[in-house]
Write a structure and sequence with these properties.
- The chain is an alpha+beta fold.
- The protein has one domain.
- Helices cover 28% and strands 23% of the residues.
């Protein structure tokens, strides 16, 4: 009977492991989330860029508050700002790229 119980525990352990392994499998559903009603979704697109931005393109998506303004004349992939009624920037968020010697990247980051 002890031998049978040990096998039962082994099978239960493997089942629990498989359940946890499949439950934590990464998925790529970032773009499937629905945006909050007070936000705008930005989705990066390779067709939007040329030159260095095209050469360094990466996929990304993020949501930003509807009250923020997207800056179209930026040298970044995207830049959004919260502005005063007079047009002064209060906060901003930008996604760009950086280059330099590979050995310096850990210090720059």
């Amino acid at each position: 009977m002890t031998h049978f119980r040990n096998h039962l525990f082994s099978v239960a352990g493997v089942a629990a492991f498989l359940f946890l392994a499949f439950a934590t499998t990464p998925t790529d559903n970032r773009n499937n989330r629905s945006a909050s009603p007070n936000t705008t979704r930005y989705v990066n697109s390779p067709s939007s860029f040329s030159g260095k931005l095209a050469d360094n393109y990466v996929d990304f998506t993020f949501d930003y508050p509807n009250s923020w303004k997207r800056i179209t004349y930026s040298s970044n992939f995207v830049k959004v700002e919260k502005q005063t009624s007079g047009g002064d920037t209060i906060e901003n968020f930008a996604v760009g790229w950086v280059s330099g010697p590979r050995s310096m990247m850990p210090q720059i980051a």
